[in-house]
Structure formats: C-alpha cells, structure tokens
C-alpha cells in the first residue's frame, strides 16, 4: 500500500516558474522533499537502469504529513432550488440506462435541504430495483421499490411521486423496449405516515448522486441518465409510461443534456433556469434513448446524444491544498523532472517537464513529449 501520494498543479513549466505540489500522507507524520532530474526512468532489469540527477535546491523541509481525501465519482449539481413542502404533491422522472444494477444503492435524482436532510430521491436500491424515498424534517423516512430488478444496458423510464392527499408513494419503471419472457416493467404504491418538511430556498438538487456527510456526494449512479425532471404535481398515467410527454405544467426543473455538450454546464430549460454543473467529468455526447445508428457524431444530431454517462470512480481533480511550492532555478535545463518525496522507506515521485520559455529555444533538437497519451 502506498502511504504517500502527490501531484503538481502543472505538467510543465519554464525555468524560473513555480510548481505547486499537493501531498497526501496516510500514517506519515513528516516527509522530506528534493528536486531531481530524471535521466533514465526505465526500471526494467533488462534496460540500462534508472538514473537521476539531484538538483541543488533547498526546499526547507521536513514537511508535516497530512491526509487529503479523494472524492471520486461523477455527478451533477444544481443549487438554489425553489422551496418545496409536503403540503403539495410532487414527482421525479428520468430516463436511465444502468450498467451496474445491484451494486449498492445508486441515486438517480435527489432534492435535499442541506440543513435538515429533508427531501426525496429516486434511486436504485441494493437489489437493483427502482425505488423512491421521502425524508421529513424530523429525519424520519419511508421508501417504496418496484421489487423488479432492472437489467443492465437497457433504457427505462423511471418515475417516482408523492401524493399529498392520499399520503402515498408511487414508483414505476417502464422499459423502452419490451423483450419476450422478460418481466422488468413494474409499479408499486405505498401509504406512508411520515411527517412534513419545507425545504429552504437553497435546497440542493443532485443528479447521479446524493449529498453526503463526509464526502460531498455518495451513492453514485453507474450508467447513463437523460432528461431528468422535477414537478410540483403528480404525473398522469400517460406521462408515466411515455418518455418526453410530460407537460410543462408545475414544472420545477427539466435538464436537457443535449445543450452545451462540450461544457460542464447542465442547462435547465424550464422557466426556473436551475442550471447546474458537472463534477468529476462524466462522459458527455453519449448515445441516448433516441439514438438509432444513423449518426455516429454528436455534433450532427444533438437529440440522439442527449445522455450523460456517470461512473462512481470518475475523477477530474482531487482539489487538494498545496503543501510545497517549488521556485524553479532560472538556469534549469529542459527535461523531465520530479519532486521526490520520502519518509523512511516510503517514497513518491511527482513528475513534470521543464521546457524553454515561450518563443525561445535552448537546443538544436526539439523533443515532443506527449502529455495526454493513452494505450489502446
């Protein structure tokens, strides 16, 4: 197990620039740091052998070790939602394409008061069935599930609602394509006795996750989500089984993922304009429920690529705080360098490149170092 990890804020810098190093330690109180130039990084026993050159630069250590968490998992978030209360019926709906049903609870859409945790959510339970949950201001909650496991990589229209008059929770899952001898269309209702809640104007709506106490988001959804909607009313029977037919009456929010595909912005096309943002870079421009194979490029037909694919292990930026700031010497040669961190037998190399200043050259030969390469 690695007990020290780190990364830099830049992948390259010119001499005289600054590099910020962000470090996380597990069980290590202190560590030392030094700057090295990597001459030969291949540690293969059949190769020429690893070679490095220490750069004479005082870091001022030792440094105090601290743990910085990694919050993996992609999701969408929209803050400042209008207040709702249990004095009025409400509904949630989304198109989903799950990839890991049955792998723990996975939230599709959640609305939550950040102070009391009161709210409601549409999710997959541990058995991989569609469920709907409501929590009141006293922390009491109740839920209902269809009891029918969803199949992976199939499109479903998922809906959940709370009827304030009958005090009934209802959840329904409708496969968009029926398969012989496959019984995955299901609906169930349940009378509940939970109390009331009234969310404040700064309620948080999350897509593909729910708020957590230790982590900012938990219970991530694995798979694709398209056209999530939130209503301050009950859906009629036709709207519950036919995607794209829900009328805009009492519409709180409707996110259209075919808009701004090249950004991390999610656009609410309702009058409330509860635009949000994506966290940890989920995959955009992926095929949605309308895709029929005619187009293989999202820029040619946005409506066919109106889904977002979320994963519970997506990660864009750890957003750690800086522990060391390295001022690079003005006479540093171009090459591959690393900040070498060490505490006893534990060590970690944080690499970066040093390049010539913009518009200049320091050698007769240019070496092109790939910064975003991958192996197929």
Short description:
With 376 residues, this protein is mainly β. It has one helix at residues 237-241, and strands at residues 4-8, 12-13, 18-25, 30-40, 51-54, 63-64, 75-81, 90-98, 106-112, 119-124, 129-135, 141-149, 156-163, 168-175, 186-191, 203-207, 210-211, 217-218, 223-231, 251-256, 265-268, 276-279, 283-286, 307-310, 324-327, 335-343, 346-354.
- Under the CATH scheme, the architecture of the largest domain is Sandwich
Kindly report the CATH topology of the largest domain: Jelly Rolls
Class inferred from helices and paired strands: mainly beta
The coarse overall form would be elongated
Straight-line N-to-C gap: 27 Å
Elements, N to C (H/E)? EEEEEEEEEEEEEEEEEEEHEEEEEEEE
What would the average pLDDT be, to the nearest integer? 90
Largest sheet: 16 strands, antiparallel
Helix content: under 10%
Radius of gyration: 26 Å
Count structural domains: 2
Number of helices: 1
Low-confidence runs (pLDDT<50, min 5 residues)? none
The tally of beta strands, per DSSP, is 27
